[in-house]
Amino acid sequence: MLNTLKVALRDEDPEVRRAAAEALSESGDSRAVEPLITALKDNDPLVRRAAAEALSESGDSRAVEPLITALKDPEVRRAAKNALVGIGSPAVEPLITALKDNDPLVRRAAAEALSESGDSRAVEPLITALKDPEVRSSAAWALVGIGSPAVEPLITALKDPEVRRAAAWALGRLGDSRAVEPLITALKDDDLSVRRAAAWALGRLGDSRAVEPLITALKDPEVRRAAKNALVGIGSPAVEPLITALKDNDPLVRRAAAWALGRLGDSRAVEPLITALKDPEVRRAAKNALVGIGSPAVEPLITALKDEDPEVRRAAAWALGRLGDSRAVEPLITALKDDDLSVRRAAKKALAKTHDPRVTKALRERTKEQYLSPPVDRIEKLIRELKDEDPDVRRRAERELSRSGDPRAIRVLRGPRYW
């Protein structure tokens, strides 16, 4: 039978030769290895591929070097790579040598095969391969594939200017806690891409030791996005430090903290975010964050509908509209009578998102003029405040009058200066 298949490997018909290669694979006879090696040079790519797949099944070390050579054949490369993985340990050293081949596709295939081998002998050569831009990604994935033996060499590689970004990425994928402190140090690297990779990796690791350094990294405008995502990745241990960051001097840090708290959805952040609604630089992020937290934010937002600042009331109405909780219906109906036009409009839009029969009744009972015009006494009071000694009071009165749409307010504001 074996001799018949050997003869068939030399048949003029490539289909016969391919079938013979496949049959030899199933024979399990070690004498089939040499004919299959010869078939790796067949004129037909399907025959060459079948021979490579058959040699994988054989697991014979004699096939290693011919298969390494076959990595140069684009039609057979994938099958040859898989065959080398199948052969196992005898293929590791030749694959390491192939990491220096002139052809980048051969180097990449070698890295991928070494990844699947999981052999620690490949770690240092793969670390070196991180310097090769054509192979860097494959080498990094290969180190992740090898696992724990790669961690310490990768930590050392964090100090190598050529490979530290890829090393940080690989350490994040590996998820080994030994990398936390070195990655924290990498947050201060001179290279932006390394700082971002370190932040990303720390988020993947999820270790609470990284929280404060990542909070500090929020001040770095080029790393802020990666840092806030990393803090979300760490989860609960980041909540209190993020709440503290809502009071940072930098409004962009405060905004990033609000965003992260919304993503985390922790109820501890509700009251601090309600307070942040008073911060014009952070208001939008804070109201979105409260919507992200959901049900625990409803009652505090209802309370905020009575805040003295109309901007806070408006933001609260908007957030309650997005949350769509039935507890907010009556308070929003009450807000239709708010002194501030923008609050009344926000309440109306919020109520329009519900299908509560109370809303239909409330809107039906009021004409547009009734709920879009403020009470008379409020307008008179605001006009008087235009002459207040306190410039902040005057500015607030001017702002609210300009929003009111009341004809008296328009006349006053268009007239001679009132202070």
CATH evolutionary superfamily of the domain at 147-234: Leucine-rich Repeat Variant
Rg result: 34 Å
Note the total helix count: 29
Structural category is mainly alpha
Q: What composes the largest sheet? A: none
Based on the structure given, which CATH architecture of the domain at 147-234 is correct? Answer: Alpha Horseshoe
Low-confidence stretches: none
Q: How far apart lie the N and C ends?
A: 110 Å
Helix content: 55-70%
The fraction of residues assigned to DSSP E strands is: under 5%
CATH fold call of the domain at 147-234: Leucine-rich Repeat Variant
- CATH class of the domain at 147-234 equals Mainly Alpha
What is the overall shape? Answer: elongated
State the total count of DSSP E strands: 0
SSE succession? HHHHHHHHHHHHHHHHHHHHHHHHHHHHH
Mean pLDDT score? 88
